[in-house]
Design a protein that fits this description.
By secondary structure, the chain is α/β, with parallel strands linked by helices. The chain folds into 2 domains: about 190 residues, Rossmann fold (3-Layer(aba) Sandwich), CATH 3.40.50.2000; about 140 residues, 3-Layer(aba) Sandwich (Rossmann fold), CATH 3.40.50.2000. It is built from 16 helices and 13 strands. It has a 7-stranded parallel sheet with strand order 3-2-1-4-5-6-7, sandwiched between helices. Helix 1 crosses helix 7 and helix 4 runs parallel beside helix 5.
Length: about 375
């Protein structure tokens, strides 16, 4: 009798849980006899940034809590690499499923590849072509290490082909983050977060900013000044990461904003769905707002998710704080309609599970060597 396979799922930050939850559920349905291990590196250690998402998405409690925490990129990645390797040596899974582009994702893929454990990357092939972004380095390296590159938009396959990734490792399945969103949206509609925050649905701007280029340097002050100017016309609601909250507390202009603690996944979806517009530097928020039909304004010079601009509701404003003052005019002509982006239909994880289970059942497929592009 064949030994049931072991599948490990690695998460460390809020977006990882959201992307992996439907994948884990789909694969448990396909492979009920398998062992399914959830590994939480603890890159995000605030409950509202990790633990609450586990509860909201009906994930099992993690089998491993690694307590990596924050720190410099080198220190954080090194701790995650060391601790993930210990788990992989102990469990020897048949595949490690990772998602996104955070430091935990890179550490997990690298640890698995060195141990000849196949890697499946959810959300592969995204590229901003901005090598100053730590996430861009992580994306490229993880895709290079992965046996399965599961993509969610057409340009991803083009990006991977340009980098010499073998075509048989690339699979378009769609956006698993939208699977979670569509599943949880009815619950989000029942949320009382607006009443708790004292804001009227449809009247406010929702802000989420976290990238070091914006919040850790000189750009934060003019950005907050522009947000304070917008607050003359709209309530500006800003759920702030603790690190960002510390900086905002030092700026008198931030008093004009509704700065609140991070909220849970369901409450955040409710805030997104009923915002007049969303201001962000987050990749996932660009996707969620496009699906919801909510105008999104991205405070970045580029995006690794161009489909949200060409087919969604996203507008790139650049890193010019003054561009934020264009938002009232842009909102006056922005349609609020759901966007039908291929593969963003709530069934991406099912397609992924079909491919992965078929490959795992194929003799000799496990532990196959990575394809290497010719020099």
């Amino acid at each position: 009798m064949a030994v049931p396979p072991t599948l490990a799922y690695l998460a460390g930050a809020r977006p990882n849980f959201v992307k992996l939850a439907p994948v884990l559920h789909a694969l448990r349905g396909r492979l009920p006899e398998a062992r399914h291990l959830l590994v939480n590196t603890g890159q995000h250690y605030d409950r509202e940034l990790s633990g609450a998402f586990i509860d909201a998405l009906a994930l099992p409690q993690p089998d491993y809590l690694l307590g990596v925490g924050s720190g410099s990129h080198g220190a954080q990645t090194a701790r995650a690499l060391e601790r993930v390797e210990e788990v992989l040596l102990a469990e020897r899974p048949d595949v490690l499923v990772v998602s996104g582009d955070v430091n935990s994702t890179l550490a997990g893929a690298l640890a698995a590849a060195k141990l000849q454990i196949p890697v499946a990357h959810v959300e592969a092939g995204l590229r901003s072509f901005d090598w100053t972004m730590p996430e861009e380095l992580n994306r490229v390296l993880v895709d290079r290490l992965s046996d399965w590159c599961f993509t969610h938009s057409p340009e991803a396959a083009t990006n991977l082909a340009a980098e010499g990734i073998a075509e048989d490792r690339v699979h378009f399945v769609g956006n698993t983050m939208i699977d979670s969103l569509s599943l949880m949206l009815p619950e989000a509609e029942e949320s009382d977060v607006h009443e708790r925050l004292g804001i009227e649905r449809g009247s406010y701007l929702l802000v989420t900013l976290h990238r070091p280029k914006l919040v850790d340097g000189s750009l934060l002050v003019p950005t907050v000044e522009a947000l304070a100017e917008l607050a003359r016309r709209y309530p500006v609601v800003f759920p702030a990461h603790p690190r960002v909250r510390t900086r905002l507390d030092e700026l008198p202009e931030a008093a004009a904003l509704r700065v609140v603690d991070p909220v849970g996944y369901v409450d955040f979806l409710a805030l997104e769905a009923h915002a007049a517009g969303v201001i962000t530097d987050s990749g996932g928020v660009q996707e969620e707002t496009s699906y919801l039909g909510v105008p999104c304004f991205t405070v970045r010079d580029n995006t690794e998710r161009p489909v949200t601009v060409t087919s969604g509701t996203n507008t790139l404003l650049g890193l010019d704080a003054g561009a934020l003052l264009q938002i009232p005019e842009l909102l006056s002509s922005a349609p609020r309609t759901r966007r039908a982006i291929p593969g963003w239909d709530g069934r991406a994880s099912e397609r992924l599970a079909d491919i992965l289970t078929a490959d795992l059942a194929r003799p000799g497929s496990q532990g196959r060597p990575l394809a290497v592009a010719a020099p």
